[in-house]
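Dear support,

We are seeing what looks like truncated structure output for some complexes. This example has two components. We would appreciate it if you could run it in full and send us the complete token output so we can diff it against ours.
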Amino acid sequence: MRRVIEGSQAVAEAVRLAHVQVVSAYPITPQTHIVETISDYCEKGLMQARFMRMEGEQSCLAALIGAQLMGVRTFTATSSQGLAYMHELLHWTSGARLPIVMAEVNRALAPGWNIWADQTDSLSQRDTGWIQIYCEDGQEVFDSTLIAYRLAEAVNLPVMVVLDAFYLSHTYEPVDIPNEEDAYRFLPPYAPRFRMSTADPRSFSGLVPPCDYMEMRNDIALAMEDVLPQEVQIEAEFASIFGRRYSAIETVNCDDAEIVFLTSATITSTTRLVVQKLREQGEKVGLLKIRLFRPFPTDLLREALKNVQKVAVIDRNFSFGTSGIFAQELRAALCNFSPKPLVFGYIAGIGGRDVTPDVIEDIYRKTKATATPDENGVWIGLKEKDHGC
Amino acid sequence: MDAELMERELMLSGHVGCPGCGAAIAMRFFLKAMGEKIVIVLPACCWSIIAGPYPQSTLKTPIIHCAFETAASTASGVRAALDMLGDTETKVVAWAGDGGTFDIGFQALSGAVERNEDFLYVCYDNEAYMNTGIQRSSSTPYGAWTTTTPGHDWKKMRKKNIVEALVAHRIPYVATASIAFPDDLIRKAQKAKEIKGSRFLHIYASCPTGWRIPSEMSVKIARMAVQTNIFPLYEVEDGKNYTINYKPREYLVREYFRLQGRFRHLTDHDLDQIQDMVDEDWQRLLAKA
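Here is the complete output from our reference environment:
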């Protein structure tokens, strides 16, 4: 059934249909509509879940770690400062191999306080062993949340479903919500590979000496390597039931393109329009959307970009001292490969600043006119500053 | 202690605690009371080591090791999952040191007991960060030497009164216990086991390594802490009904202090001051009981 709902509600609908058993929550703008909706579903009996009202984000994730270890399906949602506060336990979740799913609303980090869209919060958690899926619209948010459970449980690693603050979390769009039966067919009840039990008492997550720790970490690395093949299979199954097909990356007009935009999340939607317009003007331009950021789809990117001359990466995020993070990751993915395109990095939309079609066209023109990329990235739309740094 | 409990051993020999470790004694007695149908949530503390390294375990119960500050929140999640699975028989225990309870885990603990989470939280208190090598915690008593309160910088603040902090949350059951009074400890654990909601047990667990005492003095020192009124044995139900379990004062504070290397630097004047503090705390407790 198609309903006009917020991105936040799309998350909640998927969590309801996933038969999640334990949900923990601590409020942070712009995540609140997700957990408020779930709280409402629990109260109305639409979901048979324990809704835990925690006293902080760190405790939210800790509670889920405890719950998931006992063998139930779990969910939490957070954003920005809340995610940063969880950092230690993000590592703990993947280290303990727990398939926890989290919705993470991309919001800028303080100071100064800024509640608007910015990807630096989730991208700075890239080394924590979480699978990360970046969503473009409400439908993709819903679908990715359901898919996230399948993926997480297939490899025993946690998944972050990432959506832009306000542009997605608070924007109403038509979203197709499947019936219980179809959702159940795609995502049956949780069947944990391992659960803590008094019948088979074990000690879990304790002290591991150097003689064993390294193998355990290698197991996580191997599980991450298994994500892409698993993802292909799960997406195919999803498409056969629901008729919508996703993949780790999506390419638009890349085959004959000389310049390709590389985008993620909602900036992608705007870029689609710009590519269409530029194509009508005869420009050889394409679009590559990254949906799966962890694991990074290196082989797919190499293949998709092998005949492209220039890639214009639009980063709504920044790693101080290097560049935009998608650009950085792309350069690393391409460096041992040839032929490869030149990577132009652009920093745009930081702290929720609007990335309009004009901004994207400006990026195109700059890329076309420039022979050698600036390795630090080019900040787009900066105002004149009358002060030093 | 009845014969069945005497026989029941859920803690195996071969743990890796120090000789005379009060925390190991505390666990052994505690498990006798609790039985096998429990899940233990264990944050970073001496017991993370005492329990044994992978792939070994000294306990015959499940142990979930968790991050330092998360004993109460992890235990909340364990309980939620058991409830969702319909398992009401299995009890959830958080077993944490004083650092993980008084300091870094205090927010999670306060949050969990405010929600009246159905678990038994046990703090075994050795009065400093012993696992990391004797650093001061907010449980370290006034006057103590630690590696972060050395020389003239010995601790000049009173020990945080964690029991009263928990009582202020009006939870169903808060009690103190000591490794030197095993019958009392076991009775309280058994009582706590059967109560619904948040229960808190504060167990005094001497640390020969950190307190600078011979290992064979471990139990004697713990007993003297009760007999000096430094660590009174009492229970508080529903945040208001106080019962003091052991009353006669048999030693002056200075006799307890003089046996421990961590207090060696204190003058008679300091000890008089400490005696006054202990007397004052005791009077306040009596007034509530």
